[in-house]
Amino acid sequence: MSEAAKVKSIFLYPIKSCRGISVSEAPLSSTGFRWDRQWVVVNSKGRACTQRVDPKLALVEVELPKDAFALGWNPNKSSYLVIRAPGMDELKVSLCRPSETCDGVSVWEWSGSALDEGDEASKWFTNYLGKPSRLVRFNEESETRPVDPNYASGFKVMFSDGYPFLLASQGSLDSLNERLMEPVPINRFRPNILVDGCEPFSEDLWKEIKIENFTFHGVKLCARCKIPTINQENAVSASEPTETLVKFRSGKVLRPTQTGQGKVYFGQNMVCHDLHEGNGKVIKVGDPVFVIKTFSSYDETST
Known about the structure:
Blueprint: E1 5-12, E2 21-23, E3 25-29, E4 32-33, E5 39-42, E6 61-63, E7 80-84, E8 91-94, E9 101-107, E10 110-116, H1 119-129, E11 134-137, E12 145-146, H2 149-152, E13 156-157, E14 165-169, H3 170-179, E15 193-196, E16 206-211, E17 214-223, H4 242-249, H5 251-254, E18 265-272, E19 282-284, E20 288-294
Parallel strand pairs: 14-15
Antiparallel strand pairs: 1-2, 1-15, 1-20, 3-4, 3-19, 5-11, 6-7, 7-8, 9-10, 10-11, 12-13, 14-18, 16-17, 16-20, 17-18
């Protein structure tokens, strides 16, 4: 079996809708990469704040200890999530489990309780966003957030929009950028895994792939919201790249006889079948990607 691509970059986003971290390797867990979307900022009603409403979140940088991506690493009292943003003092949030909980937290259709990171973090995000806010952490001990069973029954996430992994290719980004007056970086699309070496948009039809010894299944093309139109360096929104994507990446173009014609697609949502808690599993930049099964056409894919 010949490789179809290589892993070019690995990204994770500790705080939902805030800036991502690029790493050379990342431990896998049953909810996605370790630390991915483990935190979310919520408003006074407990609803998740995202760049769709608060584009300033794009400017919030997060940093984890270098050792946090080592297998088996556990935080101690001097381990922090460090948070920075323009015009704000640095915020340090202990990685040790907080004692307080926050009830009535909701992300899309899911609601439950979460761990509350305290008043200092709340004050920081309240000042930054200009509205009452709290930073909360997913409580894996008491809560489960299942993936939509219509697409991938039996899987779960923390505060991701819907699925444990989002994969995109450099070829797809290059193809888009050839059509744009001003090219956009991959951070507009917030993937977890960026691969290189395959044809543009070939990842759309990947039904089953292997990276290392792990089997990933493509379960749903990623329908894009307004976030790709937000410049992640200055939080300013414009019409591109969505305006161009509509012309060649809409459901109307890709699947004219199916549902979802008004949506725009970029990237493939994936689940990993070989993951059980406690197993030491890592993927690395440079790992080969092998395609095991493909969909025969866009009509077979889910959207």
